[in-house]
Amino acid sequence: MIESGESYYDELFAKKDLQGESFTGIEFEECRFEECDFSDAIFKNCKFINCEFARCNLSLMNLSGSRLFTVQFEECKLVGVDWSKADWPSYHVDFELRFKQCILNDASFFGLTLHELKLEECKLHEVDFREGDFQQSSMTYCDFTHAQFMRTNLQEVDFTESTDYAINVLENQLKGAKFSRYEALNLLESLGIELVD
């Protein structure tokens, strides 16, 4: 079992059901989590370094005061996670976070600086990106239905093949950002421009 105050190195955690459990001060390094249920779990002041999560349920997980560095999530459910509760040291800008084919609906990245964030084939309905700095991130093949962008730094972000975003070009920094041609027409809506065929 996983115990508070312990350190785990290069371990595999498979099919663990720790729903609603609470942990403090654990350090995970180079660990892999497969098909685990950590929904509603609390990881307080923990560290996740070079870890991988595959097909895990992490919905409503609380990462209060925890640090993540080089963490990859693949085919995970991460609904309602408030990423702003984690500890993101200000001297760092690229934490090497990667999400692939994940569901991140109702999550919050409010006010975070996460350069080079990687989101690939993710569902991001009603996710809060306001006031954040996500320069040089890759957000490709994602669904941004009702996601919020306001005073967000999206310079050089790659939105190729992503859909359903509503980004006001006057309220966000978009210099050098990439959009698929057809979907980029959504950007004109914020300017009140009507397109006629």
Automatic annotation (TrEMBL):
InterPro entries: 5peptide_repeat, PA_immunity-related. It comes from the Bacteria. It holds the Pfam family Pentapeptide_4. PANTHER family: ANTIBIOTIC RESISTANCE PROTEIN MCBG (PTHR42999), PENTAPEPTIDE REPEAT-CONTAINING PROTEIN (PTHR42999:SF1). This is Pentapeptide repeats (8 copies). It comes from Grimontia celer. The lineage of its organism: Bacteria, Pseudomonadati, Pseudomonadota, Gammaproteobacteria, Vibrionales.
